[in-house]
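Request: Give me one sample?
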Amino acid sequence: MRPGDRRGPQPGLPGNRGHGKEAGDLAGLSSAGDCPWSFLFTMAQRTGLEDPERYLFVDRAVIYNPATQADWTAKKLVWIPSERHGFEAASIKEERGDEVMVELAENGKKAMVNKDDIQKMNPPKFSKVEDMAELTCLNEASVLHNLKDRYYSGLIY
């Protein structure tokens, strides 16, 4: 087969009128305006793909864990500037005037940071929140962290 040669109709692919089912036919959609979610669920069931809700919603039961909230409160977590990562999570250990001693969450190293460079971290209940206007600490580090968490969790919409 050379480039430009046509194979026969492919059942189940759009554009194969009269040869198999169209994508809309597979989902049972009609021109009457069926719900688009039903299309996604039907396609997931018929093709054996995962539930699309996994990519649309966050499991809040994990985030509202009281132990996680208490741990966050005790540590005084903040964001500090980092050349490698933009911002890194740290906990405040000691304050000395305009300087603050912090311990990095990733590796436990201690560092002195100017008080003006520190940005407050949001409680865990705001993890992967869809509407970032709900964040209690609406700052650059929190917004970037939330976007990154949502992206890596497949919650990009």
